[in-house]
Amino acid sequence: MGWGTYLKINGKWIQTWWSHASPRPQILFDRNDVHVRRRRAGPSVIFRTSAGQALVRLEQGGFSWPVLVDDYRMTRPDLGMATAFIEGYELGGGKTDVDVAQLRDFYQLHDHEAELRAFGAWMADSRIHELAQPKSTLGPADFLSDDEVPPTFDRIAEFLMEARARGLARSMEYFAWLRHEVPLLAWPLALVALLHEVESTSVVELDLSEDAATAREYNEELSVEEYVERYWGNAVHYWQRSARFYGRILTQMAAATTAVGSGMLYGRLDVLLRSVSETRLTARQKGQLLEDLIASLVEASGDELRVIEKRVVHKDEELDLVLANNIPDPFWIAMQSPLFIVECKNWSAPVGVPELRVLESKMRDRGRLCRVGILVALNGVTKSLAARLRDLQAQGLTIFVLDRTDLEGILARRVPVHEYLRVRAIQRLL
What we know:
alpha+beta; 19 helices; 2 domains; 10 strands; Trna Endonuclease, Chain: A, domain 1; 5-stranded mixed beta sheet; 5-stranded antiparallel beta sheet; 430 residues; single chain
């Protein structure tokens, strides 16, 4: 079988990856959760935390129990696959032409949380690594493993009647649908269901020992510490890339009234904000991550403020972001600025006047089209720059400054960027 890496709860295998170390479990742990022990047979490299702390980490990433329940409640009535035939047959007294509206109402009568708890308990009680599993039976690996093809709905239908008696048919169908449609979201949400059903003090471990030993066989100069750093760095990059990708996809979900879209999107953006200062990244990578974060925040604000240009390079200038202003609020109408120019500075030191003058020049070059600019300075600005902002306002140009604290405030309150700026400007005037 070769070597593997293992995710365990209280010593019981929950998921196995053969011949590679998946980056996905990184979301369950903190960097300081690693435990390294040197042995004759090879180093022991294990990330270890509690189930309660793993749930906290998942929630920080936007994957919480309320988000799972809300998505299940919203999505489950619209799933008309295998279980619909069973429910419809029973509702119709043996007939299959049940009214769709009646079927949907029947779905809504179910206890969604109880179904999800039953699914989590089933996963917690199963031995997922069992290879002698009957082919006619689905196992938790069908809903967790990223090594195997997602289960077909024909296969699900084969055992739905038995699963339904245990309260599992509908929840299994939901997670099967997630694995088909959005596999990256299915994995952490399934872990939320599982961890919700075990004791909060249960020990959660990611055992990378065999992977570390194999890596050192290929590179004898690789230290255990370097292996850990490499794994953690690659996993962080994996989630950053995924956050940017899903940030674009989930923008429309964030505008919905349900908590699931905004919860997932803002949760991923919060992770992205905490990652923009990773020391292993180059200055260019840090700048691009910050630009991606601001662009996603703007897109999450709705159609009133839209990104129309990103990383535009002209002969003598570069524009990080250009926004189209369609905000109907009188505050913004009075600004008379159809365009906003955004400059992003992910520096370790405060941004000074020279950088501000570059943004000023870009705005002046566009005349009446741009009277508003946004300077995103992650670590703040100098006092002289703050004084210069007042002089610019007297000249008809308004430049807002956003630092890390401001971005954290926007994410915590989940408010549109332009609304946050408007409220802050009014508060300062008062």
